[in-house]
Design goal:
The chain has about 180 residues and is an alpha+beta fold. Helix content is about 25%, strand content about 25%. Strand 7 and strand 8 form a beta hairpin. The structure holds nickel (II) ion (NI).
């Protein structure tokens, strides 16, 4: 089932999401629906708050970026209650976008690699080192769980450049190819 995607301006994107309990109903189905929704919107990551659920869970799939970023090959994950246990001091700056902020692409500085501990959709624990663009995708989605979005991290100068665009999105004045949830 495709789920409507929440846009910047919806308060759910600014909330600190709650941990997912082991008895959360239909978690597997939710993860499948999130993957489907992400693929149909041509995204590489989608966090639960973006579909209006304030829980600590996201999906990523970097497969389509593998030619440019080999570290993304096979990087398909559902991460539940993730914790970043380590991050590199070395940083990399690259462009990002977000399904909740259509049409906005800006450079963001992030650690070059991280170690992340999480549960998969079967509630099995994993800990892995993630590099490069895959680390970027993970951190971008992780930020959503703490009520943060990537445009919070752009330079003050760029912020003034995109201000009007962001205001339009927050008022729902945006057209995109996927279904969005109207802002109340
Ligand atoms: Ni995003």
């Amino acid at each position: 089932m495709l789920l409507p995607i929440v846009l910047l301006g919806d308060p759910v994107l600014r909330k600190v999401a709650e941990p997912v309990p082991a008895d959360y109903p239909d978690l597997k189905k939710l993860s499948e629906d999130m993957f489907l929704t992400m693929y149909s919107a041509n995204g590489v990551g989608l966090a639960a708050p973006q579909i209006g659920r304030s829980i600590r869970m996201f999906v990523v799939d970097g497969s389509e970026l593998a030619s440019e970023y080999p570290e993304c090959k096979g990087f398909k994950r559902c991460m539940i209650n993730p914790v970043i246990t380590e991050e590199s001091e070395e940083t990399v700056t690259k462009e990002e976008g977000c399904l909740s902020i259509p049409g906005v692409y800006e450079s963001v500085k992030r650690p070059a690699w991280i170690v992340v501990k999480y549960l998969d959709a079967d509630f099995v624990e994993h800990e892995e080192r993630v590099e490069g663009y895959a680390a970027r995708m993970t951190l971008h989605e992780y930020d959503h769980l703490d009520g943060k979005v990537f445009v919070d991290k752009v330079s003050p100068l760029r912020k003034t450049f995109i201000k009007t665009k962001l205001q339009k999105i927050s008022k729902g004045k945006v057209s995109c190819s996927y279904r969005t949830k109207p802002i109340k």
